């Protein structure tokens, strides 16, 4: 009967432990993620430009050379590589936790027991025994203790907590890889954007210089007419002021070129130097630009993949936090030489070993574990919301870039027609002015209008290329 009661005392806690363990080891329920629309706008194609490699997408040799240089020298990419190495080391740490730890130990110490204690009386009485020789006699009153050997500890992963932590570390490694890919896509887009901005500025300089030549000719013409009595000083002053304003624009654009080149060189990881580039007229927009199915193309985005992997890592953290409430099985052992005399430390009789295993689990004051669980749950929800926001942002960026590309093309066609009309108006105003049928104010207005609209046309053409680059980046293109 007594034996039966003892078994009950052991069995009841075991059943409770097993029941709670089965409950806590169940996978964490993951909230539903956001669903994406079926298509971008009215597109129904299954492939998109995001799947095109950047060497194929960008056909300008100068631009591809710049991208190659940046992928080798950009400092942000070098930082990202080091973060990957840190994440990889976390996997080794988590993997090492699954294996027993073994350490060498050489230690020495001592203790003086009280005369009126069990150890003190026992040690004193032992030395009077006839069963011990001089080597076994205990030093008095100070008792040294020497040890040289190996000590080991091992937590057996009976619930899978350590494996779950390793899984979280592995997902974070993959997420750090995707973070590097996101930097690559952003870097390629930045370089291409700066490159096309430089070419647009070159075009603006050509337009400004062409207009400076036309305005200088107009100033010379009106000066001649003034001498002939057909114009007055006010007309000379107005045309001269317009010429000076246009000349100041040239220096302003030149400064923008310097700033853009320097920013581009920073992305390339080098000091300021001239940037080799082509011309806007050599660039062409690809026909039939498509975005692809959102569910497929957004998965190509490295930031979406990064958010998804971080979400999985936080789910693993949440599971590990739950498993921390369960008892852990720990085994400790040592093997070595142990002696109270240094001269006898390495003798055969000093060999000592021990092995101890046991279950240890939290019973009281589990607030720290509960706080850790709540923190992991909050972090997991935060990762879910971050993932959903990343998907929504990606869809918005693609949709905006598609519409911008379409609208800038239409605006560009209209601007070309407007510039052609204004160029004809400049020629007409000059002819009328020479024959006395137009005033110098009409000439100034015509020249000013054509200059402004030529610059606007250049800006619209630049925005077309930038919209295409942004669409390529938004679809996750360029990280292969």
Topology:
Layout: H1 2-24, H2 54-57, H3 61-73, H4 75-97, E1 101-112, H5 118-126, E2 142-156, H6 161-227, H7 233-267, H8 294-297, H9 302-323, E3 328-339, E4 351-360, H10 367-434, H11 440-474
Helix pairs in contact: 3-6, 4-6, 6-7, 6-9, 6-11, 7-11, 9-10, 10-11
Could you please say which CATH topology of the largest domain applies here? Outer membrane efflux proteins (OEP)
Written as H for each helix and E for each strand, in order along the chain, the element string is HHHHEHEHHHHEEHH
How helical, in percent, are the residues?
55-70%
Gap between N and C termini:
73 Å
Beta-strand level of the residues, as a percent range? 5-15%
Structural class: alpha+beta
Task: For the largest sheet, list the strands in their spatial order.
Answer: 1-2-3-4
Pfam families: OEP
Family: Belongs to the outer membrane factor (OMF) (TC 1.B.17) family.
InterPro entries: MdtP/NodT-like, OMP_efflux
Main location: membrane
Features:
480 residues, alpha+beta, Outer membrane efflux proteins (OEP), elongated, disordered N terminus, transmembrane beta strand, lipoprotein, efflux transmembrane transporter activity, membrane
Provide structural commentary.
With 480 residues, the protein is an alpha+beta fold. It folds into 2 domains: 24-99 and 159-325 and 368-474, Outer membrane efflux proteins (OEP) (Up-down Bundle); 109-153 and 335-365, no CATH class. It has 11 helices and 4 strands. The protein has helices at 2-24, 54-57, 61-73, 75-97, 118-126, 161-227, 233-267, 294-297, 302-323, 367-434, 440-474, and strands at 101-112, 142-156, 328-339, 351-360. A 4-stranded antiparallel sheet has the order 1-2-3-4, with no helix packed on it. Helix 3 (61-73) crosses helix 6 (161-227). It is elongated, with a radius of gyration of 40 Å. It starts with a helix and ends in a 6-residue tail after the last helix. Mean pLDDT is 86; it is low at 1-12 and 42-47.
